[in-house]
Amino acid sequence: MNEPLVQFRAVHKRFGTYVAVKSLDLDIQRGEFLALMGPSGCGKTTTLRMLAGLEAPTSGSITIGGKVMNEVPPHRRDTPLVWQSLALFPFLSVVENVEFGLRMRGVDARERRERAMMWLGRMDLKGFESRRIDQLSGGQRQRVMIAMALANGPELLVADEPTTALDVTIQAQILDLLADLKRSENLSLLFITHDLGIVRRIADRVCVMQGGEIVEQGRTAEIFANPQHPYTQKLL
């Protein structure tokens, strides 16, 4: 098997005396969709934030593409994070939102506009580029966020309940879009969700956390068919 795109090795994260993540060993393969599941406070979001560079591990190492990323700031990582709350800039147009990360990286105006327009087209948002964010539906805003995240050409997308606020029809469209990007761009995805239907639909593998530790992980079909840990049995 090829080297994983992402490797967590013996990662601990403490906030004062509180241990949020304990001895985390986790791999994410290129082109893999991995779902993190578990109760509130189990360490899921902290794991995502460490991967995105918003938190540094207290000990252990996180590597992406073979490079240790512990001290690398978020803007120097190709790990955009899509939140369940839509973190867009209301004072910028749709296309300016998608261009924002490219501008921060010093991409010239012509190239960033071309790349932003290309991704808006792929998100089925052609013709919306001049609109304000408050003129969009929830599903359209979510697609703008994904275009914004992917404009820099990352191998990995990190998402925290990215479709929770959407109705069933729009949610299905977003999931189909992510599946298409997996096929066309070999995109990897680490995501949190409490929706078992979403996990069954797009996750290649499931990782169940409890008390800051991984208690069970495996292929999605295997975990759903034969959960071994008592918490996983209760969860599913």
Summarize the SSE layout with pairings.
Layout: E1 6-15, E2 18-28, E3 33-37, H1 44-52, E4 59-64, E5 67-68, E6 81-82, H2 94-104, H3 109-122, H4 138-150, E7 156-160, H5 168-185, E8 188-192, H6 196-202, E9 205-210, E10 213-219, H7 220-225, H8 230-235
Helix pairs in contact: 2-3, 2-4, 3-4
* Distance between the first and last residues' Cα: 30 Å
In what order do the strands lie side by side in the largest sheet? 6-7-8-3-9-10
**Average pLDDT metric:** 90
The value of Rg in angstroms is: 18 Å
Shape: globular
Oligomeric description of these chains = single chain
Order of helices and strands: EEEHEEEHHHEHEHEEHH
Beta fraction of the residues?
25-35%
Secondary-structure content class: alpha/beta
Q: Give me the count of strands.
A: 10
Describe this structure as you would to a colleague:
The chain has 236 residues and is of the alpha/beta class. It contains eight helices and ten strands. It has a six-stranded mixed sheet with strand order 6-7-8-3-9-10, sandwiched between helices. Strand 4 and strand 5 form a beta hairpin. Helix 2 (94-104) runs parallel beside helix 4 and helix 3 crosses helix 4. The longest helix is centred in the last third of the chain and has 18 residues, at 168-185. It is globular, with a radius of gyration of 18 Å. The mean pLDDT is 90.
